[in-house]
Amino acid sequence: MADYDASTLLVDRNLALELVRVTEAAALAASRWIGRGDKNAADGAAVDAMRKAFDTVAISGTVVIGEGEMDEAPMLYIGEKIGLGGPEVDIAVDPLEGTSITAKGGPNAIATVALAERGGFLHAPDIYMDKIAVGPGLPEGVVHLDAKPEENLRELARAKKCSIGDLMVCTLDRDRHAEMIKACRKAGARIMLLGDGDVAGVIAVSQPGTGVDIYMGSGGAPEGVLAAAALRCIGGQMQGRLQFENEEQVARAREMGVTDPKRIYGIYEMARGNVMFAATGVTGGPMLHGVKRSATGAVTHSIIMRSKSGTVRYVEGHHNFARKPAAFVA
Ligand code: VTB
Ligand code: MG
Ligand code: MG
């Protein structure tokens, strides 16, 4: 059992429940754009709503994973100060994780936020990250980013006392994963291919209901940090390595504090100390239901978790548009 410290506990607890308002606001706004074929409008609506919602949260927050640099992003840019004032925290956001799937009305889009103590998050540049993740309760190091897919599957099956054919791999459906997918299939594993949304894909390894045993493949580095924050709370192992395509990216990352471009980051190096994670479903998936709208309101489904207690909460929000502040009626 962890030590009880009433002061930090209170801050933590309240903040965790506040965070869900922020992701609910983004999801509600994005839900107007489901299936309308305009991913930028969906993303813009989510960013706008999330930014407004942060103004009601009692934190002194600094965005460290956000929508880009100040000159390219009007809101939630890296370095932006947000919140009403309160404890000093770092914030990672992806207001709409899965813009293309939202535009097409496909599954698994979420609005997501993570919070850490100052300096807790890896300052990941907006490049690709190679990722591997498995759920809780397995021997440390059972899978490794440098091992071949078939080796990782063999070790995972051994640890889970099942056959490789029982394992479900999750990855993004991308040409760059063709070799890896081929190797997994050859080894006998089953694969769930995602259109978008590897934050939800990585988290799926830690949720028994999803049937996913392992996540492999490359996706956004910022999304990697968000997923690491979630796994810190819910349990599981994850490794990530930034994938640089040119010297300019290496130099840029160096400015952000990345000293060794080849380094494999463990989960604690991506999300240190006390962290919290919240996500609200925009379109439905195995973890969260999507936003359901009616003439007078909407229903949202969210997950909130804290690393300190390991508590995972699902929150169903019933929003009454007649009583909500106009700024949040999307
Ligand atoms: C992933 C996925 C995102 O970007 O991180 C992906 O989770 C990686 O980039 O939803 P590619 O699309 O180029 O593969 C998204 O698809 C969009 O942010
Ligand atoms: Mg985004
Ligand atoms: Mg994204």
Q: Biggest sheet: strands, sense, closure?
A: 8 strands, mixed
Mean pLDDT value: 94
Count every helix, treating DSSP H or I runs of 4 or more residues as helices.
Answer: 9
What pattern of helices and strands is seen along the backbone?
Answer: HHEEEHEEHEHEHEHEHEHEEEE
Structure class: alpha+beta
Query: Could you estimate the helical fraction of the residues in percent?
Result: 25-40%
Strand content range:
25-35%
Query: Which molecules are bound in this entry?
Result: 7-O-phosphono-alpha-L-galacto-hept-2-ulopyranose, magnesium ion
Number of strands: 14
Protein name: Fructose-1,6-bisphosphatase
Family: Belongs to the FBPase class 2 family.
Keywords: Carbohydrate metabolism, Hydrolase, Manganese, Metal-binding
Pfam family, one: FBPase_glpX
Comma- or semicolon-separated keywords:
single chain; alpha+beta; Fructose-1,6-Bisphosphatase, Chain A, domain 1; 2 domains; 8-stranded mixed beta sheet; 9 helices; binds 7-O-phosphono-alpha-L-galacto-hept-2-ulopyranose; fructose 1,6-bisphosphate 1-phosphatase activity; hydrolase; manganese; carbohydrate metabolism; Fructose-1,6-bisphosphatase
